[in-house]
Amino acid sequence: MYEGEIAIGPIHSAILEPHRLRLFIEDEIVKDAELTIGVNHRGIERLMEGLPPEKACILTEKICGICSHIHLWNSVRVVETGSNIEVPERANYIRVIVEELERLHSHTLVFGHAFEILGHETMSMRAFMLREPVMQMLFDISGSRVHYSCPIIGGIRPRCNIKDSQISGLIERIEKYEENLKKLADRTINDPMLVSRMKDIGIMDRKVAAKYHAVGPTARASNVKSDMRKMGYAPEYDPFEFDEILLDDGDVLARIIVRIYECLESVKILKQALKELPNLPEKFYNPNYEITEFKPIDIYNEAQRGQVYHSYGVDGEGRVRHSKVRTPTATNLACMEKILKGYHVSDAELIIASCDPCFTCTDRLIVLKQCIE
């Protein structure tokens, strides 16, 4: 029997962000694993210290390219909550619309990477083709495909105010996305090769998910309720009807299927928001706000990967103090290490990808802690 170590990274062809994975194996079965990140430390929390809230919030958008909107939105919500700033209803609707479009493109990206790791280039390209119209919709709304800079303190930027003339076109493209997603899902679950590589692989049972504090679709695929939108932390979602998707299997296939169903729920939210938008007042920004001094407060929301957390206060000079950000991957890392054990080496990167990690935006807290120690 061969016993040894296989090192993967810091670069992998399918998971583009740098990470180092050490697999301790017997023959080709993983007996233990160590997942290390820390290559892309940028110190964003430290850079936010002492900045005016307007500048600090914009900086949070640079935490992640895939979930840039949710970071900016949640950071803006800290100021709005701490200073009791009223946000127009129309602004909240458009913030939700941009976030759900971002959820669509993020989840669809996971499908593409997972199929690429499996070696199914055709399905991978189909996933990226499915994602492209979503990116175009985000561009049409904000003028950018990655960093939309939509929320600002008190509302949204004028260029992100969705016009009534845009709504029918957006709904039409969303319905087309829904149609094509169902086709992709049907081909996935009816492909014996794909299913055999994902079913009963990387199983995370409910106890493990709860013990290691899994969040987002990774937790919900193991039947752990974790949707911040349904737990009262994001009241902007209260006007919309949608379901929290929960599955029991906890394997790679379940984590992919959860995201497919979540995309369909996002489509439901988008249709409701867009159809209601013309009935809302035109006001999308509250210019009469005042940022007051407040102690650090904790604000949560549901990013594509799960629970996202922002916290900071504002001092008497109007400067940000005690900034802290926690991304979903920070709590999912231990789960990834745990569920690698007992599976084949060739399944390792697929298991990690199915948890949809974002290593770069997680690096800030972990590496800073190492530097302090």
Automatic annotation (TrEMBL):
Protein name: NADH dehydrogenase (Quinone)
Family annotation (Gene3D superfamilies): Cytochrome-c3 Hydrogenase, chain B
One Pfam family it belongs to: NiFeSe_Hases
Positions that bind Ni(2+): 64, 67, 358
Metal-binding found in the keyword field: yes
Keyword Transmembrane (UniProt): no
Native organism: Methanothermococcus okinawensis (strain DSM 14208 / JCM 11175 / IH1)
Positions with a binding annotation for Fe cation: 67, 361
Catalytic activity, EC: 1.6.99.5
